[in-house]
């Protein structure tokens, strides 16, 4: 297993340092966002316009890293809102007493399916993402096609020895996509040990990336041949930008339920509640579908342009509660057995 360069790792650390103590200023809603910057900015601007409140954001597309920051700041929380990232990362924070419960009066009007909100009001799901495979079309046609190697169509295709050192994966310790990918393999095989044996084989071909967008950049530039990431991010950041990147949703893929939650003890609890109310409305989901190409949880919000209907994708039987309950153990096992 090769690790991405120290330059990217240092960039992530620097990003976390910027904004330290941001919550100390009053009159703002401070948001830790695991979304991409354009969507984060568009959502916060819309909230400011409708609420009259100001916002400040720390944006890092690595939900696990942001969740760790929330834990580190437990004694003196610096932010009000945890935005984006799968509920797989929000739920453990709630279990450990780091989130505030809030039953929004807008929940009924949102008409969310039961799987998209916590009954206790600790988190709300406002978008859906699906994992996909991406590959650089130009490099594939130049280097692989002449050897008779077909583009990947399934998870098992990633084990092809021809791809050694050319697969980029989001780190399951720092990113929601990486963790859900690992859990999806467990559910696909129906056996945790068999899944980890498969993951060890994949590790021989792979490089771990600490934040998901960096993997898409590497494939877009042809610095990596192929990888795994969220389908909406691949299309928005690569395909729609004109890069020679192909997007494949393999059978037995898995979803994230992107969440929003209130950080317990944050500097502006009233502003945080107003933010959650806003996020349950249609406008943020419209923005997310248009710019982030994520699937909405509200049935009255538009589908993302250029993305396949969610009902056409073939999903693994993903036991999200089991994944949440075993997250820490699985991440530790990954670090011990695979991600050395």
Compact summary:
It contains 14 helices and twelve strands.
Overall description:
The protein is of the alpha/beta class and 340 residues long. The chain folds into two domains: 2-129 and 255-307, D-Maltodextrin-Binding Protein, domain 2; 130-254 and 324-337, D-Maltodextrin-Binding Protein, domain 2. It contains 14 helices and twelve strands. The protein has helices spanning 6-17, 37-51, 63-72, 87-95, 107-110, 137-144, 176-189, 192-203, 212-220, 231-237, 269-279, 282-292, 320-325, 327-337; strands at residues 2-3, 28-33, 54-59, 81-86, 99-100, 124-136, 167-170, 206-209, 226-230, 245-248, 255-263, 295-296. The N and C termini lie close together (7 Å). Residues 1-26 have low confidence and may be disordered. Keywords: Signal. This is Extracellular solute-binding protein. It comes from Candidatus Segetimicrobium genomatis.
Q: What is the share of helical residues?
A: 40-55%
The sequence of SSEs as H and E is EHEHEHEHEHEHEHHEHEHEEHHEHH
Shape: globular
Please report the total strand number as a whole number. 12
SS-based structural class? alpha/beta
CATH topology of the largest domain: D-Maltodextrin-Binding Protein, domain 2
Largest sheet: 12 strands, mixed
Strand content: 15-25%
For the record, what is the CATH homologous superfamily label of the largest domain? Periplasmic binding protein-like II
Runs with pLDDT <50, length 5+? 1-26
The CATH class of the largest domain: Alpha Beta
First-last Cα distance: 7 Å
Supply the number of structural domains.
Answer: 2
* Radius of gyration, taken over Cα atoms and rounded to an integer in Å: 19 Å
The CATH architecture term of the largest domain is 3-Layer(aba) Sandwich
Number of helices: 14
Query: What value does the average pLDDT take?
Result: 91
